[in-house]
């Protein structure tokens, strides 16, 4: 019965519009939902709300995108839902965080992998940074490395969870510096990890550049290094880890973008892949992102596919020993 | 006194209009089952894109204030707590409504909210620097002990049977572990795909409180005698004010515990109401009346809820750390205008900061006025038959739990927990301790794991968890709370007659 | 004491189920890996089992003090409502669409439990009116104001 009606509706739609045979010419016909696997108010949620705010414009999708939060376990809850329970009809999108979901799928215990999702476009790249409290005796990355080498496993370092970008950065630092740190994952994401640094619960922390930038503006932390290949425009005075003497590349940079579950009709994917990057480039979007201290990095579907594949390779290598 | 200088900004036509809009909208959203204050504020964020910074924050601040208070409406009239903050309100508030005192319960809840709320915002205005230090003082070990303190309340929250209260608490603590473990990421007790995301606290609240009540109404069957009608009697506002003045102790305990606990990042908002309720009960000479529709219970719970609003923003405004999910959403509202909370906010944008804080102050008063009006309306809808009530609550429970995160799984969890709770209640278990376990479980666990990781890397477990003044103080309070409960239990046994046991 | 025999049996069954759940939870907690992730569940389940067995023992001995159990009358009263509610939640809401299912469930429950006579036209009109008002409010609140997209399926 249901199939019959849907079939009839599609037939009717293609007759009346006389458009593409796959029946997605009118997509989207109703508001779209986008799942964010972190809580309301987190960096991913905040940015997702900004970059989708112009979706309803006629030159974008013509229909608004509503954000649904499914937080829990460093994003695993939301991505499991998107891979297993969400309907692949083009009206359910998801926000991705690289390296998080790829690292988690390599580590196992989840129902998704890189092949469970189809990327649409990338909107931002938020590098991980090393922060210490404003009163801390550490002033350079070198100080931190020396302490960690002299006291193996004593350098308490907070981060947003296990197998998220922050944890990857910590693992890379340990590998590059041949040292052992005590990585402390927090419940409650980057904000809780930052609170632990400011309150002195931990000696150092790895956090998002955007959040750390704000905390430094408020005079609460010192930012010692950026885990990226180049210095960041927001923090021109902070060296990269490589410049400061630790061979850490950009594997931990938190790429954020939009994806859909596998099985979404190709016509819908094509339409989204064509319109979404332009939607990100909207002036108002860029202005709000800049104001909030969130670095943008727009990539098309093909570029994201390559980036995912490259990340999976490096992460497999990095996590192989664990 | 800087805040007085900017007071005028609240009363420009546009700003005041937004304040009214936020207050009324917040009351409606807050009274909607399934919509927590966090979600309500998140829903309003897109509207603030078009406004300038101060105006956007007026809207959000007013909405935050009044959604917290609005949650009392559904908690009292329908026994559906809109957020964890309103659990304690259902305990006496709904019992009052069943006795026909719904309007009175609403009036005193809004008046108590306004008093607590104004006090909380005044604390935010005058004591922010001191409070910020206090908020930071709570590390993982202290939060762990705080959660344990909450657990000790479980036994005394339900006066009927301490063992069954503790057992209910254990069931709640276990339910909280279902799903992905937040730190390790391991899957625990996921025996149905709907549980993959764990048990959503809002959906669970709706199920545990609303569904047993629906089934209880079913169990009464069809009555033709007209006795099964819920009446809402008119109640003069003056009477409600006098009631509030008579219960200064509950008011004071509620306001104080709300402001102190509300300050603690990540914990406060959820348990402030319950802790205040429990404390008010322990200090009251009429403690036996709690749970039977006693106004002290409503006053303590609601004054605590709103007293928490102001202090909960302290870590955000001074240190740029969002201490609660709602504060995190408000942070977004600031960031889109390029304003960073912290010194930047007060030094470079004092107009925004103070207009926002002032609007919450005025918002408390407006919220109270509209709330009293709503209470009057409730009294006009004079009689609701039980059958209508049961069907309405069931429908709202389904829509409310679905809308939390657009998930059918949450609706299934809500219904399963609800039906289970009905049968458990028939055997002397109660929902309040179970819910407290559900809330405290993750706090206790995450902070224990995190604390032990830090402890292992530094001074060792005993030094970390048992050392330091604040740890010792909290442990002392935990022990005192246990002894007090045991003492009360023994005393009440001695005085309870045989007939009371059988009843 | 003859009236209390029914609750006593019920209490044994009820607390027996709770104890069984507790033992299952403890079993899973102590056998599943990784053990670090199950540290807390082990702690909880140990207390859970002790308290549940205590309650069960009290129920068997007839020492249970609180909880009235369910009378046959109450059970026959609640059964039709519970069945309709469960069909509504676990099947109809998704199978028929949220609004259709809610309208049907609301109206059926109202007709079952409303004390007004079943033969009078007036009372049927009243039921239809109440259902319509409720659905309009729900639709306005959730679909219009909050723009929640509910499952539509066959009907609306």
Task: Describe the structure in your own words.
The complex is a heterotrimer of chains A (322), B (503) and C (156). Chain A has two domains: 31-126 and 253-319, Bordetella uptake gene, domain 1 (D-Maltodextrin-Binding Protein, domain 2, 3-Layer(aba) Sandwich), CATH 3.40.190.150; 128-226, Periplasmic binding protein-like II (D-Maltodextrin-Binding Protein, domain 2, 3-Layer(aba) Sandwich). Chain A is built from eleven helices and eleven strands. Chain A has helices spanning 2-17, 43-51, 76-84, 100-107, 141-150, 165-177, 189-198, 209-217, 266-280, 283-291, 301-319; strands at residues 32-36, 65-69, 92-98, 117-126, 128-133, 156-159, 182-185, 204-208, 221-226, 254-261, 296-299. Chain B has one domain. Helix content of chain B is 76%, strand content 2%. Chain B has a two-stranded antiparallel sheet. In chain B, helix 6 packs across helix 11 (248-262), helix 11 (248-262) packs parallel to helix 13 (295-307) and helix 12 runs antiparallel to helix 13. The N and C termini of chain B lie far apart (58 Å). With 156 residues, chain C is an all-alpha fold. Chain C has two domains: 2-61; 72-145, no CATH class. Chain C has five helices and no strands. Chain C has helices spanning 5-31, 39-61, 72-95, 98-113, 121-145. Chain C starts with a helix and ends in an 11-residue tail after the last helix. At the B-C interface, helix 8, helix 9, helix 19, helix 20 and helix 21 of B face helix 1, helix 2, helix 3, helix 4 and helix 5 of C.
